Amino acid sequence: MGTQFWVKGTVLCKTGAQVVNATGPELDKFIGKISYGLFHGQRLKQCGLGGRPFRFSFFPSLMEVIPASLHISVIFFCSVLIVFSSVASAFFMYNAFGSPYETLHGPLGLYLWNFICCSCSCLVMILFASEVKFHRLSEKIANYNESTFVYKTYTERFDRSFWIILFTFLSHTLNILLIRLAGIQFPFQEAKEATVNTGASDLMY
User: Which residues form the signal peptide (predicted)?
Assistant: First the structure.
């Protein structure tokens, strides 16, 4: 989560390319690289005179040029995802080795932890994708503190950290399906005559 491998792309020095009317292989001299995550990143600017590497951090430098509320929301839901994924893993291990009966007949908690993790991971992907694509985050980073040259996103793709969030979402979704296939009934499908346990064990299991 804290790495810079969320987005990887290239940025074009539009001003320099227009000055010399660069096309074809000449355009490569004006294409730099950029990669960043939720907290920091690095960029390599090229405007025909060689690359200029530069490292940056979002806090506090870039908070004025990026959608700060959206970015903080992504970090918040990432934190919630980490916490509840850890909680879900701990209780699943306890459930598997400590109380086999609850593994087959466990109530609300087994669905609760996975649902929270699914919701948070889905929100992280949606919010971060909208920040990158709709708010043109890469261009804002590339043009930060630039008064002479104008940079434009040339290519852009999500990197490994983003896909780990997708894998987490799919894993918790698969957990819910496996719990259902194991014979555990959904809470709203339980018979009315069944006694409902609303104690602490509901949240544990």
Answer: none
Strand partners, 42: 35, 55
Q: Where are the beta strands (DSSP E) in the chain?
A: 7-13, 31-36, 40-46, 51-57, 151-158
- pLDDT band at 25, cuts 50/70/90? confident
* DSSP-derived 3-state class of residue 123: helix
Parse the chain into domains and list their residue ranges.
Answer: 7-204
Alpha helical stretches, state H, 1-99: 14-20, 68-98
Q: When comparing pLDDT for 197 and 165, which is higher?
A: 165
Q: What is the pLDDT of residue 28?
A: 80
pLDDT at 88: 81
What is the chain's length? Answer: 205
Torsion region of 125: left, alpha or beta (phi above 0 gives left; psi -120 to 50 gives alpha): alpha
Structure tokens at 179: 């719990």
pLDDT band at 197 (very low <50, low <70, confident <90, very high): low
Q: Which two tokens stand for residue 104?
A: 């087959």
